[in-house]
Specification:
Elements: H1 10-34, H2 39-51, E1 54-55, H3 56-63, H4 67-79, E2 83-88, E3 91-99, H5 101-122, H6 127-142
Helix pairs in contact: 1-5, 2-5, 3-4
């Protein structure tokens, strides 16, 4: 019996969606990591590419992460030469973090690797199915309390 032939409850569908989302994220992360940059690190570099030089606290807020988590990510990215930290000219106690040219190259490669995986996964769907899924995701987002603006 297919899922559409039985009466699925919101709880069943929700749990299935969460499990599938977790697996998809894992597959994308593995593909991106094989391309040289994890999904998590790519998100940090994407934010820096979009925002320019910012304080780590601003970066943490933008990413919706705890400041300590962002500090650890930035330290690792700094060691890899993908970002650099410099004194904030407006506040000597603070540091600004920015993308380096090497970081921009890594971001491009990581983004391409992630897009390749997404094309492989979603490329199996017909255009109508993609349009339907896109509409369903909009409906789901509208029902979420405090839905993120970038989803």
């Amino acid at each position: 019996m297919t899922a559409s032939a039985r009466k699925a409850t919101p709880e069943e569908v929700g749990l299935r969606y969460l499990a599938l989302g977790y697996h998809l994220r894992k597959v994308v992360d593995e593909g991106m990591t094989a391309g040289g940059l994890s999904l998590a690190r790519t998100k940090v570099l994407q934010a820096l590419d979009r925002l320019g030089a910012v304080r780590q606290s601003t970066l943490a807020q933008e990413l919706g992460q705890a400041p300590r988590s962002v500090t650890q990510s930035v330290e690792a990215l700094d060691r890899a030469g993908l970002v650099e930290r410099a004194a904030d000219p407006d506040d000597g106690r603070s540091k600004l973090v920015r993308l380096t040219p090497k970081g921009a190259e890594a971001l491009a490669a990581g983004t391409a690797a992630g897009e390749k995986v997404l094309r492989e996964v979603f490329g199996t769907m017909r255009r109508e199915q993609l349009a339907d899924l896109d509409e369903l995701l909009d409906t789901l987002k509208a029902g979420l309390p405090g839905a993120a603006r970038d989803l």
